[in-house]
Amino acid sequence: MTVTLTTAGPLPSLDDAEATYDVVVVGAGVVGAAVARELARYRLRTALVDASDDIGNATSKANTAILHTGFDAVPGSLEARLVREGRDLLAAYAAEAGIPVERVGALLVAWDEDQLAALPGLRDKAERNGYHASRIIGADELRAREPHLGPGALGALDVPDESIICPWTTPLAFATQAVRAGVHLHLNCRVRDITPDADGHTLTTSRGPLRTRHLVNAAGLHADEIDRLLGHDVFTVTPRRGQLLVLDKLARPLVGHILLPVPGPAGKGVLVAPTVFGNVLLGPTAEDLDDKTATGSTADGIRLLREKGRRIVPGLLDEEVTAVYAGLRAATGQEDYRIQEYPGLRYVAVGGIRSTGLTASMAIGRHVMGLLTAVGLDPGEPHELPPLTMPNLGEAFPRPYRDAALIAADPAYGTLVCHCEQVTLGEIRDALTSTIPPHSPDGLRRRTRARGGRCQGFYCGAAVRALFEEERP
Amino acid sequence: MTGQPREVDVLIVGAGPAGLAAGAELAAADAGRVEILEREQEAGGIPRHCHHGGFGGRLERSAYAWASAAGSAYARKGTTGPDFARRGVAAAVAAGAALRTGVTVTGWAGPRTVETTGPAGPEQITARAVILATGARERPRSARLIPGTRPPGVYTTGELQQAVHLYGLRIGTRAVVVGDEPVGHAAVATLRAAGVHVVAVVTDRTAPALRLRSPRVPLLTGTTVTELTGRRRLSGVALRHHDGRTTTLRCDTVVLTGDFVPDHELARRGGIVLDPGTRGPAYDAAYRTSHPGVFAVGNLLHAVERAGYAAQEGRAVAVPVLHRLAGTEEAAGAGRRLVVDAPLRWIAPNVAGPDGARPVGDRFVLRTGRRLPRPLLVVSQDGRELHRQRLLSTAVPGRPFTLGAEWVDRVDPDGTDVRITAR
Lengths: 473, 423
Known about the structure:
The complex is a heterodimer. Chain A is α/β, with parallel strands linked by helices.
């Protein structure tokens, strides 16, 4: 296994005939990584490039971490199909690769008569989306199943297969498998210009030129800009900011299911959901912005979430907030994905992948593979990728600090560094020397949970940073 | 977890000033096997990284010191934090306590049985008495709900001190310190030791308790932090003054100081009742929690008192623990809760003990949420006044003041909660 992962310096030289890639995927979010993993199954020269220093470092890292059933998609849409297919693919892949998934189920809670009246329509929509397990439950059953719910809940639509998943391990698993299978990964590599010609494209990047025969645009928030570099003016990405609060693990017993609002005129609204790390998530807000870098939280956003959260599960607000973050969703003003192939350009644009993108990612990967063939790529025969096991970050699955045999074999797995999240020296060491290692302490946190807990580094922050800097001075 | 089961007489969770003192006292009193578990690699607790003086001296004022590292009226009294920590460790070990570092209690497997993990593997330890001494920490940026981006360069004092004094990490060039509790001094001193220019100390209080000894650092009162800015690195701290003025201080480092909370996770995981004011375990003058045989000492009970006070509590818990071991423990009785009215924030201890047992030093410790000049403290139960006491000084947020304990034997064990009100 030869891994090609670059973060600085020149890219493979254009003079070298071998340097021309068959496919370059722009954007290493969950979608780009899934496309790269799909391409890795073929004997192709593929590169995955990203402007940032890590996999999944923009929209993919700051979502609600839900593995959707697609029950509420627009029936007949591309999104509905890819979410439905992607869900099954990802659920199976997660089980195989050790990505934590918990099938906690969702309850769409009706807080007034209008919302209650909307539940049958939502159930019917779920049926049209091929999801047949949802049913409407009354106030008493709802209360019995969610005893900490605030007063006034009238009933709910029960969607038992909605699940929670680790949003960080998923794209990292895709990319790791891709890179191990020979896909080149170039980070800190921002695409500034694209010159198409008869044989393909020359990309001008922040790290120099790059040559490819086929191009996949999975640039998320910047997919419209990449598309424009190719002369299109098809869609505009309007960043929709979602601020979220992560509550202390001590809040986890207050919430059993993903508690969804009934969608109304004001959008999908604020949800309360457990996380696979054992916390509770409250959010997101939905703010249409024009700044694609506005990933800050705001006082108004935090206030709004606390007001909503107080109504949904009042006890939540007695617990400490362990993180406040904001993600930008790539809204395009159209209620569907915008995935388009351009045969003349040997180009596939993957735009408008909304919050369902995590669920749909593997199906998008397959879909894009098909479109690449349609634009002239001859991939040859696929081969099986060697299986992959990711380090488990999920609270519901065995973790090293509890594993007597593992600790006996290597005491580093019994040496806790981050106490709030029970992260061991062994896990930190593994992450720092993994196939795609972190290039920042935040990257290390997303691989291990180190310093992601309630104290946010009061106890372990300096120790974790010292370990990181020792490995990457 | 298939931990090896083991039994000890006394299990102490946490080897800070309180846990070490308890271990030393109990081991010296031949309490049997006294084991102290410390999850860090080195015992000593917070003082390990408080490189200023003032620990353990007669005038010692705070675990986090009023004294700056550069020296002050207090610095020559007592000793430095690391030295205080070393002495505590040496005393516990010399007395015969088994001190095990790098061992973390991860949960409960029974009323007095804990699950642990460490390099030697998981264990289950059952004790005849458990003493929780898990301490307190400063609330981080997220818990304070400070909006903005999430760049590197945001610290609590605890993390800053460790980064500078234990790991020698690079900090930055320009820092803003938030908070006016005494720990702010320690933060300023640590920043200076790391060669960082302190731009300002910021507090939302209009009349802060903190008096900066250095005229070089501006103190901005009545000012709240409204946003942190910057991407790859902190670039500034946006501020708003109570009068509506706003500004942004350019800096690459911000230290959020004070605002301590008890590290109560293990206590809560065990279902131990918390006091709503302190957020630590509710406890009586014998350091008994709601669970028989589970005691608590130190800043887990009250965030935070000075290290010397925590150590004093550690020593004081020995007597009730020995009674427990000997089977001569007083019945818990119907200990009445002590409840404070706003603006008072908490009182400790916060359960009236049996037979009018009195707290250490014969005093209760309190905090206020608002400045109270010479308040009259009134203790009452069921409308019956038990005690009144005029404070001769001003009660200030973030700083301790005390209430005499001479009234505790007048508490009616069959009555309702005892209320403490400031007038």
